[in-house]
Amino acid sequence: MTFFIVAVGLCRLLPEFDGAICAALVVAIIGIAGYLAFLATIDVPMYLARWRAELANGSRPLSPLEGLRDASFRWVVTHDIAEWKDEIAWMSLYFSAAVWASLALCVCYSACGVP
Question: Which of 19, 22, 73, 84 has its CA 20 to 30 A from that of 64?
Answer without folding.
Answer: 84
